[in-house]
Write a structure and sequence with these properties.
Two copies of one chain form a homodimer. Chain A is an alpha+beta fold and 662 residues long. In chain A, 54% of the residues lie in helices and 8% in strands. The first copy, chain A, has a domain of 136 residues: Beta Barrel (Butyryl-CoA Dehydrogenase, subunit A, domain 2). Chain A is globular, with a radius of gyration of 27 Å.
Chain lengths: 662, 662
């Protein structure tokens, strides 16, 4: 059987779908996860985990309080620590991420920043001596670290950070200090209760000169007692939309002393006498942020996929209403409206993941280049990942919510678990740089590119910017996906130029640079979005073209068709020079046929991601499709049903009703 | 001072905004809430509530478990029961709703279905005798009731409900029965733990003939012990995306006996001998659903406003980045991107509320007409509210999420409370008829309307449908909002006709009615949305035109301008016969100036809703603007900070770190 998820005893409605799949889901998994080898490793790891019963949730996660969620994650981490080496190759980051996700889900845990920000910050920003001192301890998990940058009153604007690290040559110490309430570090993951160390970003001050944001390695809690050290105020910031299994924290310093060599000094330095050496590239301190952003397309793609696994499987099991056969209700997946809700998101998820591969590779390359002293790729990647992060998080949020709504009422229950996935994913619109700010950072790069073209320096354009210098040509819309790329190129070029022109005109009319920029800002964000969506489409098509397996390629081309039709319809108003009202109508018709074409492969396309039931935590998305019985079992097990009559009914409602009867 | 929210000691950033407001917020409240009298009553009620300290939250709601939330609501209901008559005119539904919302918030409570579905069902569907028996008891709250229709396996398709009510003339009883797991009633609010009675919708069966869904009054729990009665399985369905203060429930019957006179018999009847009389109108049983839907534009408008109150106030207090003045960061409300995120939603919220007034009045009129035997308005209102519900819930969800993201990181904290508002509001996309299904119900009505025009029966068109028969004419886009209405009329007309034509052509090509309908479904939903958005825009403009107060009218016209520009840009691709690429560019420029114009009145526009801090439950949205200090206080009070070292750290993390050191 081509679909490897089929098992005896499954809901026949789901097996029927899986039998229709025209390609081998293991082969697709190899495409999705970059190699057959890693796809196999993923399955092996999942299989090994399933043989360790203590790694399973001790009860449904949605029934737990925050304290219970945190405790459950800590318990699992402690079990994991016994099995680490037998489960994964600990030097392989992708294997580690897969393991974390399978065992701990998406909600965060004590080590979530340790792996993704703390260690990478040490790797990128600590010098060799410092790495010698801390990196091994961190990797062995003798200490737990996080990354503390954002403050209560200050987010994306790093220049405004208030926390100071003032250097005193006399004692060769920094004094870390939180001068106001708004200067409290606020939000860092795992800061509140778990971490005993942090990389803290503070404004470096030497002899009254402010050198701006720099990273410092700071011990927060006693290694024996775990109590906060004197001079340190630390705690949890309270419940959030999601990630409630994580202890995002606050942190304040009261004249906290730090030895000189605790400033991370790979790129900038402070000598004993207070002499300051600046980093070779202004943005080099951002590298751990760029790393996280370069992963976001992949991560968000997988969030979207999780929601789609649930929604597509459930849509093959849920029956409602009638089409031709009046003897039995139809699968809701047969409705065009349902396909239109779900399939374009499947296409986007694949596209995001393919983009994610590319940006992760670009980051790895950048890290090598920077080590070799070449920082020239920094601005490119910073711009690309800023835009990508914004577009991908926004579209993922939309897609997940549509997936949830496609599950009707039960989508709203925590039994679907989609709302938790949504909460986690949509956080990405805000963390690691708020989306509007990120779009405007890309816009800065786009405006500069146009200025290069205008001044005859097109040759200096960064990668992916050449289309901005190309002339507008005729497009034959019947020539396939490439024509749609051209439409997108036109739309992006037109908007990038238009926004740049507006910005320039406002300056010429006398507005200051900042005011003119602000008055062009919405147009600039539109330009950034179009540019990024063009990149996503091109990457998707390029990747699919490179595939050799015939049956895999065929279904991916179907997916590309859904994507390009959907995307072009969505941005139609920006490309009216090339698409008329009638053409838009005909693209809509093509979209509906492409949904039809995709229908038989829908379940196999999401099964191919091989996301385990353990990770999904969803009653609706179960691999076996036995939704209803398990929904009832889940509800019966929930805390409120442990007694027939709630204490509050006896205490308040019954006396009230009794009194009313008098 | 024109803005009545100003008080001594407020955050000066907020006071500065309020001083800029060019209109009297009390006067605007009178416009928003329909009359000066009711606007005053609202304030009086809020004021009276504030003098009863037991009605305040005993701790921040977000820190509570589900059990605590439910208990807290029950406690408050019991306090309320002592004060009912002194707080409100109990015959005034709007006063009661205001009271509930102020005291209990949005998260649901034991009486939420009692007031909105249970009593209205008795009013609309019980005959005089039955009302005599139950209505008084319900109104005095001797009993708590809910409305149980949806089943685990069956939502919007009422014909598929599996729960049976079989009549036996021999005993003059119905037997209520749940034949399968999927037939369990699932989702009804307040069913799980609070209610002891329910109006249950079941398939009426007499001598093997199925008469479809009918309402029955059923006792669920013993009035003395509150234990479920024999033959009844009832419980809570578990945690949800939001509304976790409500006990949505499941309900099963095992051959449960019910006397004949417990079927609600105002419209259909079953005689002692089993003779059945059908209702005068097929949809008459839906009237309580239509009632809820007719309220939804108002309710959702208020949800959106709550989020906007928070986001707009916070945006006036939060400072980030620099414009011209480099000495102090600017209010984020000064950014064009922020205005573009928030102001169109303010306009929509006003528009929704004005539409809500109209549909509530239409429902009240319908109820009178139906009592007098005239059911002719039923289909119209059903179609209108179906479309309106879908569009309004979708756009409200979008608006609330944008408001949340406009608050940056802190928007994601439960301290903002916006994610709870979102969860509550977005439920509206699914409850009371899933949005896609609702859009298709309106589409049915639209297609019928086109068929009337095609067959020369334009005179029979329902209200608001005449534009479908009108010819396309030249539009002068410079002539103000009315021109935009014409653009919208064109777009809606074009799409309604196009979708209808597609549907007809597919049938002519040999597809069955149901298949052709499904293959046109996405186009049909687009038609319904455009039609509904036209209605919203027309209602908004009509209402604003009718206002006489000059300063109020002026700012509302500014709001209309934001609205029409934003809306037309959004649907541009459907009206390309009337708006060119260049014109769309110029509408965008107009939109940006209209945002600018609105800027000084933004805070006053949301203050005018006079939503209390108690109801908002938001640290970010506080009237006084003192966000940061209270955010820190809130966090410090949260459960995880009651100890420095969590038990789970001692139990799991510390031993793990210690072991790693060996």
């Amino acid at each position: 059987m081509l679909n490897k998820s089929i098992m005896d005893g499954d809901n026949p409605d789901l097996t029927e779908e899986r039998m229709k799949g025209a390609f081998d889901t293991d082969k697709m998994a190899a495409v999705i996860y970059g190699s057959e080898k890693f796809a196999i490793r993923r399955r092996e790891i999942t299989e090994s985990i399933s043989r360790i019963p203590q790694l399973a949730d001790s009860k449904p996660f949605s029934f737990m309080t925050r304290e219970e969620k945190i405790s459950e994650s800590c318990r699992k981490l402690s079990v994991l620590s016994e099995h680490w080496n037998q489960l994964i190759d600990t030097n392989n980051e992708e294997e580690a991420l897969h393991l974390y996700r399978e065992v701990l889900g998406l909600e965060g845990h004590a080590f979530s920043l340790h792996e993704t920000m703390f260690i990478p910050s040490l790797v990128a920003q600590a010098n060799d001596e410092q790495q010698e001192k801390w990196l091994g301890r961190a990797k062995r998990r003798e200490i737990i670290g996080c990354y503390a940058q954002t403050e209560m009153g200050h987010g994306t604007n790093l220049r405004a950070l208030e926390t100071t690290a003032t250097y005193y040559p006399s004692t060769q110490e920094f004094i870390l200090h939180t001068p106001t309430e708004t200067a409290l570090k606020w939000w860092p993951g795992a800061l509140g209760k778990s971490s005993n160390y942090a990389v803290v970003v503070a404004d470096l001050v030497i002899r009254d000169t402010h050198y701006g944001a720099h990273p410092f390695m700071v011990q927060l809690r006693d290694e024996k007692t775990h109590n906060p050290l004197p001079g340190i105020t630390v705690g949890d910031i309270g419940p959030k939309m999601a990630f409630n299994g994580a202890d995002n924290g606050f942190l304040g310093f009261n004249q906290y002393k730090l030895p000189r060599d605790h400033m991370l000094m790979r790129h900038s330095r402070v000598e004993e006498n207070g002499t300051y050496t600046k980093p070779p590239h202004a943005k080099i301190g951002y590298s751990s942020m760029v790393k996280v952003r370069s992963r976001m397309a992949m991560d968000q793609g997988l969030f979207m996929v999780s929601a789609l696994v649930i929604a597509v499987r459930y849509s093959a099991v849920r029956r409602q209403g009638f089409l031709d056969d009046k003897s039995r209700e139809v699968k809701v997946l047969d409705y065009q409206t349902q396909q239109h809700r779900l399939f374009p998101s499947i296409a986007r998820a694949y596209a995001f993941i393919f983009c994610g591969f590319e940006t992760i590779q670009l980051y790895d390359q950048l890290l090598i280049d920077v080590k070799n002293g070449d920082t020239s790729g920094m601005s490119d990647l910073h711009a690309l990942t800023s835009g990508l992060k914004s577009v991908v998080t926004h579209q993922t949020g939309e897609g997940i919510e549509q997936a949830r709504m496609a599950c009707g009422g039960h989508g709203y229950s925590m039994a679907s678990y989609i709302s938790e996935i949504y909460g986690v994913a949509i956080g990405g619109c805000t963390y690691e740089g708020e989306n509007m700010v990120m779009l405007l950072q890309l816009a800065r790069y786009l405006v500069k590119s146009v200025e290069l073209v205008k001044t005859g320096k097109s040759k200096e354009l960064g990668p992916m910017m050449n289309y901005l210098a190309e002339p507008d040509t005729q497009i034959d819309l019947t020539s396939g996906p490439e024509a749609y790329v051209k439409v997108f190129q036109h739309a992006a070029r037109r908007q990038v130029w238009k926004a740049t022109d507006k910005f320039h005109q406002l300056m010429e009319s006398g507005q200051s640079r900042d005011i003119a920029w602000n008055n062009s800002a919405v147009e600039l964000t539109r330009a950034s979005r179009l540019h990024t969506r063009l990149y996503i489409m091109e990457t998707f098509i390029r990747r699919v073209s490179s595939i050799s397996d015939v049956s895999i390629k065929k279904v991916l081309i179907d997916l590309v068709n859904v994507h390009v039709n959907y995307e072009v319809l969505d941005i139609g108003t920006y490309a009216l020079e090339h698409v008329s009202s009638t053409q838009l109508d005909s693209i809509r018709s093509q979209l509906y046929s492409s949904l039809d074409t995709l229908r038989p492969n829908a379940v196999s396309l999401i099964d191919s991601f091989q996301i385990s039931d353990m990770q999904l935590r969803s009653v609706l998305g179960r691999r076996d499709g036995h939704v209803y019985t398990n929904l009832f079992e889940w509800a019966k097990a929930s805390p409120l049903n442990q007694t027939h009559v709630l204490p509050s009914v006896n205490q308040y409602l019954k006396p009230m009703m009794d009194k009313a009867k008098l």
